[in-house]
Specification:
- It is a single chain.
- The protein is an alpha/beta fold.
- It has 21 helices and 26 strands.
- Strands 9-8-26-25-24-10-23-22-11-21-12-13 form a twelve-stranded mixed β-sheet.
- Strand 22, helix 17 (558-565) and strand 23 form a beta-alpha-beta unit.
- Helix 11 (382-392) crosses helix 13 (430-439) and helix 16 (505-528) packs across helix 17 (558-565).
- It starts with a strand and ends in a 13-residue tail after the last helix.
Length: 672
């Protein structure tokens, strides 16, 4: 050791020593100790951890370099061949040649490894500083390799939190790896505590094609395996929700040769536009807008579409009850009245959807679970139904029990138009007139009427025209709200991939927000009831569009809510972005795990440098464009580790499958 203080050290080394250790690349870990190896411990029984950050001039280096320069000039003057074997150091005597081979390494002191006794157990601990240092001549410095390097790179500070170590990659100091490979030092495993990622924020930073998705898939597979072990042990599993804008999680790609879904159809579900039910784990993404059981989801879609309008009829629609669910403590008569009005409001909503060119399903599932030809059910007094039959003719409605009337799909608009015309003309008499007034007098009917007729008072309004962009969400095959279905699958520990690569941007954005809001609401319900919300991981791409500084001020934005409230609701979040500056500072400040790949400009690196000591890696982050080469800082690790992330592939898939009790997949036989 040439020099040391509380923050930095200059290590004296030699060309021979560097060659013997397989080279000393920048960012190498070094270990320094003042004790003799193999001797008893004592006050000096501690090891300092260094990180090489550059070179440092030695006290006599300028004199030695002058000697070397003069020798080189003389050699070049005396020999015609400039080959290194001819001129390099040939004029130096062995003593001088040895002296000029010494160089200095500028190192940052990361901290101190030492033994600590707690509850009678001796364990290795780490402090982020040094509490003493001695005359530099007493220190010996070593380069850890193999298992020793793996132990340093994978070290976790002792805590009472759960620990489950899983491999994520290997130590990689530099872009050039020739010496590491020749010296067999290129595969020192880096293990992380997978629980660091569960319930916490993880940021993936890097340019496109730099391995962010590969890292996400690796983490997802590892979390799935731990979740399955928890299930076996009787603990709740961990669900994972992945918003997949490029379809790379759901489908095989040339990078990996496999996909996350290869873990198994029972464990990985894919929701996508246009799914026809041919595969058991691929389900339609959307809702059946004509299913009474999904009317809440339908209403939420309509409300979000109309949210930019401040008209009274919009506010009335937002407040209307189209479900007719019984309220605790409600009198039976009041419940029956609300239920009847809810069916009539739904009828008008269905009519508006039909006028907006939504495809009416051919069939639907009845209360008994059986599939029937689709009909719109509505509660209608018998005398009003009699007049309707008489004036429109037979074949439009089918009488049911308890005042229920079923309207045929082809008769939906004619029946609704007849009811509206009779109400406006007020030309019915007797009990039928009273029944009609009751039919059209409920809030649900009145709130939906302007959307169907495009008339609000004396004004012409957009009405059902505004609903047309929602047709992409309409899935006649769906038999329940897809959001509720996804949430139940997450509770059961499954990986749910929402494949969004086929949808229009506006539809994708709206659907993602709807699903995220639903997830937040369900977790909040459990939290406010005093229950422990289940652990769910949410994976988000292009986070700079969601957590920008401007949007972060909007507490009603669902993504902002997720960023602010996710941890207490046990919603872990893995977000990926190319723009560190595009993510609001509070999100970055509360990010527990950092995975930093190549970024191509100093502005992003300067923002990154505000966190931990990423500033030391700034130039390398900009210049090293190696896919999967990241700088990793996890919640349990006390320092940044340069890592080459393992490639997601069949081996990792089979590890996840084994955890779930599935048989391994066999690699395909290459065709010659």
């Amino acid at each position: 050791m040439q020099r040391i203080d509380y923050d930095r050290a200059v290590v004296l080394t030699h060309d021979r020593w560097k060659a013997d250790t397989g080279g000393i690349p920048q960012f190498s870990f070094l270990l320094a100790t003042a004790r003799e190896i193999g001797a008893a411990g004592g006050d000096d029984d501690e090891v300092l951890l260094f990180r090489v950050e550059g070179t440092a001039p030695l006290a006599l280096e300028s004199d030695l370099q002058g000697v070397r320069e003069e020798a080189l000039r003389n050699a070049l003057s005396r020999h015609e061949s400039p080959a290194p074997s001819v001129v390099l150091d040939v004029e130096l005597d062995p003593f001088t040649r040895n002296r000029v081979a010494f160089t200095g390494l500028d190192c940052r002191i990361l901290g101190t490894f030492y033994e600590d006794t707690r509850d009678g157990t001796v364990r290795l601990d780490f402090g982020h500083d040094v509490d003493n240092f001695y005359a530099t001549a007493t220190y010996r410095v070593f380069k850890p390799v193999g298992e020793g390097l793996s132990a340093v790179a994978s070290f976790l500070k002792p805590s009472d939190d759960p620990v489950e170590l899983v491999r994520i990659g290997a130590v990689r100091y530099s872009s050039t790896r020739r010496r590491a490979m020749v010296s067999k030092q290129a595969d020192a495993a880096v293990e992380v505590n997978v629980h660091d990622f569960i319930g916490h924020k993880t940021g993936m930073f890097g340019m496109t094609r730099m391995g962010k998705s590969n890292t996400m898939k690796t983490i997802a597979a590892r979390v799935f395996a731990v979740s399955e072990y928890r299930r076996v042990a009787g603990s709740p599993p961990v669900g994972q929700l992945i918003f997949d804008p490029q379809g790379e999680y759901a489908n095989p790609n040339t990078q990996d040769g496999t996909e996350l879904a290869a873990i198994g159809e029972r464990h990985v579900l894919i929701y996508k536009f246009g799914a026809n039910g041919a595969a058991s784990n691929v389900r339609p993404l959307g809702v059946n807008f004509f299913d009474p059981a999904q009317i809440d989801a339908v209403k939420s879609f309509i409300v979000s579409t109309l949210a930019d309008q401040s008209s009274d009829y919009i506010r009335a629609f937002v407040q209307a009850d189209f479900t007719g669910q019984q309220v605790p403590g409600e009198e039976p008569r009041e419940f029956q009245r609300r239920q009847a009005h809810a069916t009539r409001g739904r009828l008008l909503v269905y009519g508006a959807l039909a006028k907006a060119d939504f495809g009416i399903p051919q069939s639907g599932r009845g209360p008994d679970g059986r599939v029937w030809p689709w009909q719109a059910g509505v509660i209608m007094a018998g005398d009003l139904a009699d007049v309707l039959d008489k004036q429109l003719g037979d074949g439009h409605i089918v009488r049911g029990r308890a005042g229920k009337v079923f309207i045929e799909r082809a008769s939906l608009i004619p029946v609704i138009d007849w009811i509206i015309e009779r109400a406006e003309a007020d030309d019915l008499s007797g009990t039928a007139a009273a029944s009609l007034r009751s039919f059209v007098g409920g809030d649900p009917w009145r709130s939906a009427l302007p959307i169907y007729t495009q008339q609000s008072g004396n004004r012409v309004v957009s009405g059902y025209i505004k609903l047309k962009p929602l047709r992409s969400f309409h899935t006649p095959l769906s038999q329940r709200d897809y959001r509720d279905e996804i949430y139940l699958e997450l509770l059961d520990g499954r990986i749910v991939i929402v494949d969004l690569h086929l949808g229009p941007d506006t539809v994708i954005r709206q659907l993602s927000e709807q699903l995220a809001a639903f997830l937040m609401d369900r977790q909040t319900e459990r939290f406010t009831k005093g229950d422990d919300p289940p652990h769910v991981q949410v994976v988000i791409e292009e986070a700079h569009n969601l957590f920008s500084a401007d949007k972060y001020r909007d507490d009603l934005d669902v993504w902002v809510r997720l960023a602010k409230e996710g941890s207490k609701l046990h919603l872990g979040m893995i977000y990926a972005t190319q723009e560190v500056t595009g993510v609001a500072h509070p999100v970055l400040a509360n990010t527990k795990n950092w995975v930093v790949a190549h970024l191509n400009n100093s502005r992003e690196v300067n923002e990154l440098a505000r966190f931990y000591d990423f500033s030391a890696f700034g130039n390398a982050i900009i210049s090293h464009e190696d896919r999967g080469h990241v700088r990793l800082k996890t919640m349990s690790s006390p320092y940044i580790v340069p890592v080459q992330i393992d490639r997601y592939g069949l081996e990792l898939v089979n590890e996840a499958r084994a955890a779930a009790g599935e048989t391994p997949l066999v690699p395909p036989v290459p065709v010659r």
